[in-house]
Design brief:
Strand order of the largest sheet: 3-6-7-8
Structural class: mainly beta
Bound molecules: zinc ion
Shape: elongated
Number of domains: 2
Distance between the termini: 66 Å
Strand content: over 45%
Order of helices and strands: EEEEEEEE
Length: 149
């Protein structure tokens, strides 16, 4: 197996190895490593943040990419409108959504949340907890509707 110096620590590594055994750098035999997955950001920016940022996979540091933009889409998304597995934003849509308005399997919001589990002042979900709530199992001050109590 041909050996190449690691891009990061210069120790000899197999050029097919996925991770450097010495310093844990991803793809150590590759000279220029930009990570894996997919990343795209719009040229248009707003307050220094891309208008749209889409990011999936791991970055050059081997860590999961985080999408940050006015509209952010990715496994981890942070933005005005965030869509992701874990989404944090003014409007957050994700498996886990945290925002002012959230949709998700687990949705936590400062305003309104809709999800399997919803926690917000205004919450709708299979399990909904908040001030004004609606859903199957609801915990709240004002019950808007409830399938079971
Ligand atoms: Zn290394």
């Amino acid at each position: 197996m041909p050996l190449t110096p690691c891009r990061q620590c210069a120790e000899p590594v197999d050029d097919q190895s996925a991770v450097c055994p010495h310093c844990h750098a991803p793809r150590p035999a590759v000279r220029e490593w930009h990570g894996e997955g997919f990343e795209w950001r719009s040229h248009a920016q707003w307050l220094g943040v891309p208008a749209v940022h889409v990011a999936f996979g791991n970055g050059a540091n081997g860590r999961p990419r985080v999408a940050r933009g006015v509209i952010a889409v990715g496994q981890r998304a942070v933005g005005g409108v965030a869509v992701g597995i874990v989404a944090t934003g003014f409007v957050a849509v994700g498996v886990v959504g945290v925002g002012v308005i959230s949709l998700g399997v687990v949705a936590v919001a400062a305003g309104a949340a809709v999800g399997v589990n919803a926690l917000a002042p205004l919450a709708f979900g299979v399990v909904a907890a908040g001030y004004a709530v609606g859903g199957v199992a609801v915990f709240g001050w004002k019950i808007l509707f409830a399938v079971a109590r």
